[in-house]
Amino acid sequence: MIINEIKVKSILSRSKIYEWVINPYVGCQHACTYCYARFMKRFSGHKEPWGAFVDVKINAAELLRTEITKRKRGKVWVSGVCDPYQPLEAKYALTRKCLEILAQNNWPVIIQTRSPLVLRDIDILKEMPDLEAGLSVTTSDDAVRKLFEPGAPPIEDRIKTLDKLRGAGIKTYAMVAPVLPGADGLAELLKGKIDYLLIDRMNYHFADRIYRQYGLEDKLTDLFFLQTRQKLAMLI
């Protein structure tokens, strides 16, 4: 893993999903095979494989303290092209520092992660009146998770994290995106642990080789997606 500490010129960026996005890191240790965010290599100049590098924006909190006073208040996505709670966050705490600033200024926040490390910051999250915390949970089968998300936390840990967040009074959601083989088994696992569910199919082709290698091509079809979506919608 190649880790670089860098300083950037801005941290609060416009987003096409929500009003704003904060990405404390460039790159992600989770190394998901299908990740759309690998397009960032075109802008960062990295030649290493996706998942083999992370740039740490060490001045993220310093920038946010200034920028938040100059921007119009709006919902902030944490994060869009990296996991804000990837393993390096345990050392650098950039996400925590940014959340503290957002909380102090009463900005609405939506968190998206795959990591139980988000529970470290539950003291901040439960005091934020306009906050949602979501876990990306793409399959119920941890063997499938290991194929497609080799560096990401186990599925069971993510389910338990959602349960603990919701138990703390935090609005929670699950992001089943992409819908991987075994996703239909998530219905029972997620029941009672989330306030809502987001579902999206595999609409990019970075992981096609994994489907071919393990004979899973039928899990890329319209039929698989529609049947899985219907089952999740019925049970949740």
Main features:
236 residues; alpha/beta; TIM Barrel; seven-stranded mixed sheet; three-stranded mixed sheet; globular
In words, what does this structure look like?
The longest helix has 14 residues, at 222-235. 32% of the residues lie in helices and 18% in strands. The chain is built from 10 helices and 10 strands. The N and C termini lie far apart (39 Å). It has helices spanning 41-44, 60-67, 89-92, 94-104, 122-125, 142-148, 155-167, 186-190, 208-213, 222-235, and strands spanning 2-6, 12-14, 20-22, 25-26, 53-57, 76-78, 109-113, 131-136, 171-176, 196-199. Helix 2 (60-67) packs parallel to helix 4 (94-104). The chain has 236 residues and is an alpha/beta fold. Strands 2-3-6-7-8-9-10 form a 7-stranded mixed beta sheet. Strands 1-5-4 form a 3-stranded mixed beta sheet, with no helix packed on it.
Could you list the spans in which at least 5 consecutive residues all have pLDDT below 50?
none
Q: Give the count of helical stretches.
A: 10
The chain-level mean pLDDT equals 94
Give the neighbour order of strands across the main sheet.
2-3-6-7-8-9-10
Taking the sheet with the most strands, its summary is: 7 strands, mixed
Overall shape: globular
Structural class: alpha/beta
Global Rg: 18 Å
**Total discrete domains:** 1
> What distance separates the N and C termini?
39 Å
What is the element layout, followed by pairings?
Layout: E1 2-6, E2 12-14, E3 20-22, E4 25-26, H1 41-44, E5 53-57, H2 60-67, E6 76-78, H3 89-92, H4 94-104, E7 109-113, H5 122-125, E8 131-136, H6 142-148, H7 155-167, E9 171-176, H8 186-190, E10 196-199, H9 208-213, H10 222-235
Parallel strand pairs: 1-5, 3-6, 6-7, 7-8, 8-9, 9-10
Antiparallel strand pairs: 2-3, 4-5
Helix pairs in contact: 2-4
